[in-house]
Design a protein that fits this description.
Blueprint (H helix, E strand, L loop, with lengths): L4 H14 L3 H7 L31 H5 L4 H20 L5 H21 L4 H22 L3 H23 L6 H17 L1 H24 L11 H22 L1
Helix pairs in contact: 1-4, 2-5, 4-5, 4-10, 5-6, 5-10, 6-7, 6-8, 7-8, 8-9, 8-10, 9-10
């Protein structure tokens, strides 16, 4: 693992600043309609086992106004940005990773409280990350990472789409959209990052979901998977190079 202390500190400071804007990002996401698209709803409940009665989902505006949220998102974004910066250093890839840091924290907060991953936040991120990936490849003068990003999109997005298609009640389509976005970023960094990121997301989602349901923090049939995917992606960035060197 190549750690760059100065990069980690600089990125953590950046994360602490932009992390304070995460509640504003959440508040600007359009609310889902009264009869949303079925692909927007994270249906993780078996029809023959209805979930226990739950509180109504908060609106994005109300969620953004929660006391202490700005401080928590600032700390979370600082931690994520610091880890990402320390892992890749001052490289062109840092551009799209630092963009994804606050967006990922916003998505994690939204999914945790609403079990929704809004398309209005993920779809524009495809465009931004795609442009930044192309710019990074141009800056490095190497088409290989860009091709890896495209393959990562296909592999991660295709895997999650297949799981959703086979059993749509077991995974929300928002997870499918998010997987493709993460696959682009991880694929650019290499196969080690991509495979570790995807596997870690599944592992954390399975173990974490069981633990949280055992503690009655979440419903075991309706817990958010997005936050685990995002944490897994960070682990892919940090640990992927280590796994690649070990395997080689």
């Amino acid at each position: 693992m190549t750690w760059f202390l100065d990069t980690a500190v600089g990125c953590a400071l950046y994360g602490a600043l932009v992390g304070q804007l995460v509640p504003a990002i959440i508040a600007r996401v359009p609310e889902p309609g009264p009869d949303p698209d079925p692909t927007e709803v994270d249906e993780t409940v078996h029809a023959d086992h209805p979930p226990r009665r739950q509180e109504p989902k908060p609106t994005y505006v109300d969620l953004a106004r929660r006391r202490g949220l700005r401080a928590r998102t600032a700390v979370a974004t600082a931690l994520v940005a610091g880890l990402l910066g320390g892992a890749v250093g001052w490289t062109p890839a840092l551009g799209f990773l630092l963009y994804l840091a606050p967006v990922g924290v916003a998505l994690a907060v939204i999914d945790w409280h609403t079990r929704l991953l809004p398309t209005r936040l993920i779809a524009p991120s495809y465009l931004v990350v795609g442009v930044l990936v192309l710019a990074a490849g141009w800056a490095e003068g190497d088409r290989g990472p860009v091709a890896g990003a495209a393959l990562g999109w296909v592999l991660a997005g295709g895997t999650f789409f297949a799981l959703w298609f086979v059993y749509p009640r077991g995974m929300g389509y928002g997870d499918v959209r998010l997987s493709g976005l993460l696959g682009i970023a991880l694929g650019y960094l290499g196969w080690g990052s991509l495979l570790v990121g995807i596997y870690a997301g599944f592992a954390l989602g399975g173990v974490g979901g069981l633990l949280l349901s055992a503690l009655r923090v979440v419903d075991r049939k309706a817990y958010p998977f997005g936050p685990f995917m995002l944490v897994g992606a960070v682990l892919g960035v940090v640990l992927g190079p280590v796994v690649s060197r070990w395997y080689s």
